Please model this.
Amino acid sequence: MGRAEEGHAAARANVAAWTAEIEGEGLDAVVINASGCGTSVKDYGFMLRNEPEWAEPAARISAMTRDVVEFMLELGLADAKPPEPLRVAYHSACSMQHGQGLKDEPKALLEDAGFRVTTPAEAHLCCGSAGVYNIMQPAIASRLKARKAGNLDKLGADVVAAGNIGCIAQLRGAVAAPVVHTVELLDWATGGPQPPALARGSAAAVPELR
Model:
């Protein structure tokens, strides 16, 4: 089985599982907190368009898929106030801004939650993670990481926020500030716990993501 067929097989398995939920207790949305995964799931309808058995259910799943920040925008933030007035450097993952077309939504949520948000120069460029690109092309990925980290460090932010796990793993330890998921900050601002990376005060915190 080639890589393309492996990907299609995984897509069918997910579509089948979520369709069973729809036909059971029902689903309002498929919410994904890793933008790389969300980009793929939103593409299921296209991926399986030529397979009669799967085309319609795949299209239905894609249509109801939301990145977590999209879903939170629909729900709205209640009584949000950051425990600390942090300055947040927002890193937009390629899969978020280019794959899903979500450029301003995460920043708007962070600002609505009371954080001061800034973006780096060359925000459109990849950080070098790109799925397994940092494994398959480590030399190029390292140059991209250094370039992205340099632009982020110039902002002098208290924390870097991103919406994709690969980017978070790539940037931790490369930038001076701690790196967290956008939702960790939103959760904190609405009564949740302080993000572990901030609590530990280390850019390399939460090593399990490495």
Remarks:
- Residues 202-210 have pLDDT under 50 and may be disordered.
- The CA atoms of residues 171 and 201 lie 15 Å apart.
- Residues 78-209 form a domain with the Rossmann fold fold (CATH 3.40.50.1860).
- The longest helix spans residues 3-23.
